[in-house]
């Protein structure tokens, strides 16, 4: 069978100097041209700037994989020999252009493969660099559907696109009793958050729920204006797509102005320590979307025996409970590990090895503590793992998350409608 990547490989090798960041001729000597007795992975993520929290989460996920495989198994076994894993980081500084430069740096440094950024907008800048240089790349975090719709040949993602997560979490919330009649939807104006807001709006429309308004705004907006407009619409639910800082700003403004919908659904990160710390007394009862928490009932597999075993390892290593982004990042490392084993080539990898690795990744199925990972090979979710089930969670009074939907996966009953601010 001729795979799509075989045809594209022929094309990419023909463009030579047309690659804009690191020319193919420039990377031809990388990989197999030098002696190295370990697998070298580059990791591009935001270690400074507005998205540094998320970047640190992905770094913990990648590091926990590498440290565990090195300490417990001596590295990755290939042909009867074991090769340790080393990860070299480049800071995307929370901006797409810097992320693209960071990706080029990793390729110039001779990485065997790349672990991807935290945010979708940086990932969308990094993926073309991977294409131009035929470099295998797995994101353990980015969720924008734009990434997969582009049909990037060398990029994969372990976390389902937010167009699935946002839609399914919203649908689960809309099934709670009493069923809401109206929603107000807001989103920060950047790729991930807009895709989240659009997925939330679509779920409400599909359910026949009135969407009072859909509003996009910049990260640095005045949230009192956002909340005032929503308060005037008086919806049953407020649905919001954004990152942790925007969630904190939204609930703080809601408490300040006495805006009391029956519930807030936020994505991403309400079950992280950063949201709980930032939101403080306003955090409890928030609904969130996720695909993994430590208490989820999933079997283990490669490297970690269960979700709780992984959570315990994270707690021991970093004194923090992992969220699904950290888990998805560790799963990305595990998938590379299993693909390297199947490839059977000792490091450093040649370009032919890297091209062969893409075919292996397209067919791979890995059972992990995070869930089963397998990548789509056609359609709008090309190279995205859409197998992991979406979970609706709600924070309790102590800030801990419980799974409250969908009904077949729930481990607790939702506290809904949520108490008004002056009743907490």
Automatic annotation (TrEMBL):
PROSITE patterns the UniProt entry points to: PROKAR_LIPOPROTEIN, TAT
Signal peptide location: none
Pfam families, per the entry: Peripla_BP_6 (PF13458)
Entry-linked CDD domains: PBP1_ABC_ligand_binding-like
Entry keyword annotation includes Signal: yes
Keyword vocabulary terms for this entry: Signal
Region annotation (Disordered) ranges: 399-424
Domain Leucine-binding protein: 40-395
Protein name as annotated: Amino acid ABC transporter substrate-binding protein
The species this protein was found in: Halorubrum glutamatedens
